[in-house]
């Protein structure tokens, strides 16, 4: 898809916005939503030619872990805290099992792709330290 002619920002301006929002602590998906809703950039990849994560990686501002696996790890840590306070909550225990399975499956995929170190394993204790 070609660059829409009604986008008012140049590629450099869009990259500067992405880097600024990242420094403010926004995730890649949040940056995309802000650019779409506030700045009228329908798709960064169609306009600039690179994805937001590629732009962040190019400028050495990408995180150590992919965004989707970090979100799952945060959810798992929150559910573990909930289960400590409510040990009889069987529905949450099942949800935790499902989320941790997703984390392990994504971890295998990302280690094959080289986005995580080879042999990376999910450890709930390390995850709690990573998130906090």
The major pleated sheet works out as: none
Number of contiguous helices: 7
The tally of structural domains comes to 2
Work out the helicity level: 55-70%
Number of strands: 0
Q: Uncertain runs with pLDDT below 50, 5 residues or more?
A: none
Q: Tell me the CATH architecture of the largest domain.
A: Orthogonal Bundle
Give the N-terminus to C-terminus distance in angstroms: 40 Å
> Class by helix and strand content?
mainly alpha
In CATH terms, the superfamily of the largest domain is S15/NS1, RNA-binding
Characterization of the model:
The model has no long low-confidence stretch (mean pLDDT 93). The protein folds into two domains: 11-58; 67-131, Helix Hairpins (Orthogonal Bundle), CATH 1.10.287. By secondary structure, the chain is mainly alpha-helical. Helix 5 (67-85) runs antiparallel to helix 6. The chain has helices at residues 11-23, 28-39, 44-48, 52-58, 67-85, 90-113, 124-131. The chain is elongated. The relative contact order is 0.11.
Keywords:
single chain, 132 residues, mainly alpha, Helix Hairpins, 2 domains
Furnish the topology, listing elements before pairings.
Blueprint: H1 11-23, H2 28-39, H3 44-48, H4 52-58, H5 67-85, H6 90-113, H7 124-131
Helix pairs in contact: 1-2, 5-6, 5-7
Can you give me a brief rundown of this structure?
The protein has 7 helices and no strands. The protein has 132 residues and is an all-alpha fold.
